[in-house]
Fold:
Amino acid sequence: MNSSDVSSRGRRAFFRTAVLAAGAATLNPTPSQGAPGDATPAPAAPVGYLCFSPDEAAFVEALVEVMCPADDLTPGGIDCGLAYFMDRQLAGPFGKGDRLYRRGPWRPGRPEDGYQLPLTPEQFFKAGIKAANQACLAAHRRQFPELTAEEADRMLQAFSTGDLKAPVFGFSEWFNDLVYPLFTQACFADPIYGGNRGKVFWSLIGYPGLPAVNGLNMVKYRGKPYPGAHPPKSIEDFS
Amino acid sequence: MGSSRMKILPERAVVIVGGGLAAGLVARQLVRQGIDTLVLERGGDSRGGAESKIPSQRDELRWDTRHGLMQDGALETYTLRRSRSEASLPMRRLSAFLPGTGVGGAANHWGGQTFRWNDHNLALRTRFEQRYGRSVIPADMTLQDWGVTYVELEPYHDLFEKLFGISGKAGNLRGQIQPGGNPFEAPRQNEYPQRPLEITEAGLIFKETVEREFGFKPYPSPAANSPDPYVNPDGMRLGACQYCGHCERFICEANAKGTPEVLLYPWLEQQPKFELRRHCHVTGLDFDRSSGRVRGVQYLDLATGESFLQPGATVVLAAFTLTNTRILLSAGIGRPYDPESGTGVVGKNFCYQANSGIALFFPNRWLNPFLAAGCTGTLIDEFNDDNFDHAGLGFLGGGYIGVNVSSGRPIGQRRLPPGTPRWGTRWKQANAEWYAHTCAIGAQGSCYPHRENFLDLDPDYTDAYGQPLLRLTFDFRENELKVSAFVTEKCRQIGRAMGAAHLGPVSSRTAPFDTRLYQGSHVTGGTILGADPGTSVVSPRLQHWDAENLFVVGASVFAHNSGHNPTGPVAALALRLGDDLVRYHQKPGRLT
Structure:
């Protein structure tokens, strides 16, 4: 965590406070302002959240800025579209419980039994935000978005291990089985879903994307750097 | 869905439940002989839609992460308990294994590994007792011989390989061991119809290492991924594999994966004696206990909401493994298995696989995981089945070991060295550093039957149509934990010898069974075959012991699961059943 990250967070916190004070519905992800390493120009930033309240948006924006700080590898999580991705996933079929078996009886299970709560993923995600803010208040007398990057990082570690005082909420399941997968999906899914803006994470790791017609490449680039990975191609490039 | 409101349709000669691989192969043999055949499939088609066209076909989030092609768990899932003393819980998000739906079934989204199981695998009890003595099989391991021999199945393996254009390298041609192939395979009459797929960089490292350091005999994974354009004996065509890394869990947009919807159903639908009826969800069998005959199949037409009884002179259950068992239990055909007494048969010998793997990291090698097909694997069989001496080991079984590189899809297939932070700048750095330089060495561990691993109907949970869910009473028991520990340790030794700079956690498959982790879709058993009506559901010819005109096919008839993928024996048994049903059609009675 370097000083520019902190100042970037400070700037966002200022915007957020200002917007909330003005009673605006949501805080828009601000377009990239030339963050270091932002080699590919990001497409126009989508505006607004579908299912996050302002408080929830503030939490998720703070979360993705801690998990994906602006650095010389990528822009910050907001500018990568990560909060936007999570909002759209939770507002859509996934968040509403698509493919999830939701009939009773509802019995408690152990972690290996998988998800057993009668909440949709959207409801569980938001219940977790409330509980996490409570846990932050108890530990720091501030809610999650108001923590320093270091404090927020330590709280996320605690959520992931479930190592919190008087846990009345299944933080470990919430973080590891819902929040964290959404985070990695936001980074690495096709940009059509709103995350991985500008294919920044694909470029970072050298994933070529699609369509990948590799009949000859399979032999030609066996054991060698694959030039087709730069730049990667996404669904938009073939649409 | 009461029978009073159920419309009764005209009788058909053969009615097949399920429109997947096994059904398509049975139907092919029947229709070639001009026998009227109807297939009832609960889903629709996946050719021509977003799942099979560029660019949407390459959408990892939609098809892989969110299981876009799989059975919808909101409609039907399974419940699990790990012992009879526990309450069951539904697998609310199907993750550990992934049944398919729609024409072609799970064989649309498969990777394509197509093994023949060697001859001793079909008579394991006899084999183990002869080699190690009668006491070697634990009392709670309900192993039994299949009553089918490899020699009987060999022509059908051969036919399936030709129909699906399987690529590979023979290891045993008519008794002669072949260099470059799997020396442990049973004798085959013919070479694979197609050459092996190109080897991956990771496969090369594995191959060179096990040959040099251990003297093992690596072989290319047999594959239903077509290395070249191919025309099968029915005139059906496969394109050439593009090594695109979107194979298993996807529809092949290049038509290069051997699947029923490319090679079987388009041909079948051109035949005058064949009908495929889509969107038909089978709800039961109409069974006449006094005559021991099934009158027909009850189904719900999901396109119209109407219920039908489809009478059939012959009825075949060829649905997903677990569905076959569920239908028999619901219809009350055959005695349900009772673990307390060890009697009864339906639901018995449910098996899975004890799969495990270790991530390997090579900073100076470009492994390019995205240059891959579903079956670009390099494998060894030295520790599979009974290919090695089990005396004194305290377990039976084993698994293939190898490096399967099938994809570099970045959501699900990234690997990071142990100790890497899970987010932040260092996490990003590690992703950039390692993505193109990792692979996994893995083992596909066998799973032998256990007295307490079985299937029955759940007393509490129902599907979207109000019928009981199937309940799995299952955990990895002592034998499988030992198998997995053994083969995983072999993986570690080979991984070390391959020169990996880092190895991921060496974690063999452990109990309790974790429903959150994908562990392969190879579930077997429940309607097992055998020579003794007291211990099996169907005869070695797949004829139900209690209903003469009812036949069951698929991995549900496997009496155990081995360390090889199940598709080869499923296909060979289905083709043989098709030929048997031609005989049965001409002269009904008990098949011998």
In short: Residues 113 and 223 of chain B are 5 Å apart (CA to CA). Chain B has a mean pLDDT of 97. Residues 3-586 of chain B form a domain with the FAD/NAD(P)-binding domain fold (CATH 3.50.50.60). Chain B has one domain: 3-586.
